[in-house]
């Protein structure tokens, strides 16, 4: 029941100070339908791990086996196809959304980039359906990001990630930039969507309290490595 099998994944960056082992050597599996929380202090490599799995950062070495196939070996065309199934929601919905695009254009964008997934004459319907899924009011369809509050902007970010019907989503600190009062709304939404759509998540957070309710298992990272990987409820048990 494993959806993703990450084997000896490494991501090094060349910096002025030398080679930085942002992801030193990590292996773990993500089961279909689960949420794996990826936690650890800022700079330990969580975000790089999430991006390397999607090849938004090219892994230095290692394998990312998705349903039995190593997608690190995929060429651009195969990867473009794969990206429909693997999406990401970014931390700051403001800086990750193009301010010149309307809500409609932002959510429809992945459909235009991936031509043929949804026939042109059904794009509007798909966008409206996705807005409804994420709880965005219909009247906002022609609004722009600056006209929305943080929670609604993040709903647009989530809608972009959902519009192609993915199986797997990396949530990269999806509530960290939001007001505390809105965080629980977005967490509840993510939980509901997972249930309804059968999604698998990697949930990146620097704060354990954010992921504790939603995660089935937690991986703790430290300096580019996973130092603990356990069922959520075991993490607080005495050894
Ligand atoms: P986290 O998500 O846990 O805060 P990151 O994965 O963002 O950590 O970063 C891990 C390490 O890699 C940090 O030291 C960070 O500065 C470095 N890093 C991240 N992205 C780059 C990059 N594009 N170029 C160079 N170093 C990077
Ligand atoms: P930039 O601002 O440099 O374009 P982004 O972080 O927006 O960088 O995107 C980096 C890469 O991630 C790009 O190749 C882009 O196509 C891809 N990308 C952007 N949004 C998503 C998403 N929701 N799911 C999967 N890939 C995405």
Automatic annotation (TrEMBL):
<keyword id="KW-0813">Transport</keyword>
<dbReference type="GO" id="GO:0005524">
    <property type="term" value="F:ATP binding"/>
</dbReference>
<keyword id="KW-0547">Nucleotide-binding</keyword>
<protein>
    <submittedName>
        <fullName>Peptide/nickel transport system ATP-binding protein</fullName>
    </submittedName>
</protein>
<dbReference type="GO" id="GO:0055085">
    <property type="term" value="P:transmembrane transport"/>
</dbReference>
<comment type="similarity">
    <text>Belongs to the ABC transporter superfamily.</text>
</comment>
<feature type="domain" description="ABC transporter">
    <location>
        <begin position="4"/>
        <end position="239"/>
    </location>
</feature>
<keyword id="KW-0067">ATP-binding</keyword>
<dbReference type="GO" id="GO:0015833">
    <property type="term" value="P:peptide transport"/>
</dbReference>
<dbReference type="GO" id="GO:0016887">
    <property type="term" value="F:ATP hydrolysis activity"/>
</dbReference>
